[in-house]
Amino acid sequence: MLYPETIWRQPAKDKTVYLTFDDGPVPEITPWVLNLLDYYQIKATFFCVGENVARNESLYEEILKRGHHTGNHTMNHIQGIKYNTRNYMRNVEAANHLINSVLFRPPHGHLRLAQARKLRNKYKIIMWDVVTRDYSKKLSGEKVFDNVKKYTRNGSIIVFHDSLKGEKNLRYALPKSIEWLKKENYSFALL
């Protein structure tokens, strides 16, 4: 409980999971994710990088138009431990001008305690309890899917990445994960 200000998993009475995506929106992969979510009639939460929102405004608007939630993932995907609190908060606020959400997820989960305390005054800090590691060049799509099966439990916040670094594994593991979760009678909820 290093960061009591953060949410790692949601309390859920029913079999529910929270599907999330980090690092987008990017035109090469986010539209595919949106179409897949539409196909399965699932809503998700997208933690967006401000500079990607600025470059892809219409794609960001499409995420919202399709009924998904968005959250702030900083302006430039910076790690809190590498910045002083004032500069980190400036970066977060720059992203917030574009994203306008009370949800925040720190890139890599890295924050200083002072940053977490400041952030909680304005944001709900959402972490995860299932990181798929779809971005890893060392993992196959099958292993990413195995991570979902192995670690998901009731109330899990599951992280995928709608980014170029995760594309190959995401295209394999996301549909399989959704199908497996549905087969296991999980429902999907928004943060």
Summarize the structure.
The protein has 191 residues and is of the alpha/beta class. It has helices at residues 30-40, 50-55, 57-65, 85-99, 113-119, 141-151, 167-183, and strands at residues 6-7, 16-22, 45-48, 69-72, 103-104, 124-126, 130-131, 157-161, 187-188.
CATH superfamily: Glycoside hydrolase/deacetylase
**How many domains would you count in the coordinates?**
1
Radius of gyration: 16 Å
Relative helix content: 25-40%
Work out the helix count: 7
Q: N-to-C SSE series?
A: EEHEHHEHEHEEHEHE
CATH architecture: Alpha-Beta Barrel
Q: Give the strand tally.
A: 9
Low-confidence spans: none
Arithmetic mean pLDDT: 95
Please state the structural category.
alpha/beta
Beta-strand level of the residues, as a percent range? 15-25%
What would the keywords be for this entry?
191 residues; alpha/beta; TIM Barrel; 6-stranded parallel beta sheet; 3-stranded parallel beta sheet; 7 helices; globular
Account of the 3D structure:
The two termini are 21 Å apart. Helices cover 40% and strands 16% of the residues. β2, α1 and β3 form a beta-alpha-beta unit. The protein has 7 helices and 9 strands. The strands form 2 sheets. Strands 2, 3, 4, 7, 8 and 9 form a 6-stranded parallel beta sheet that branches. The chain has a 3-stranded parallel beta sheet with strand order 1-6-5, with no helix packed on it. It has one domain (6-188): Alpha-Beta Barrel (TIM Barrel), CATH 3.20.20.
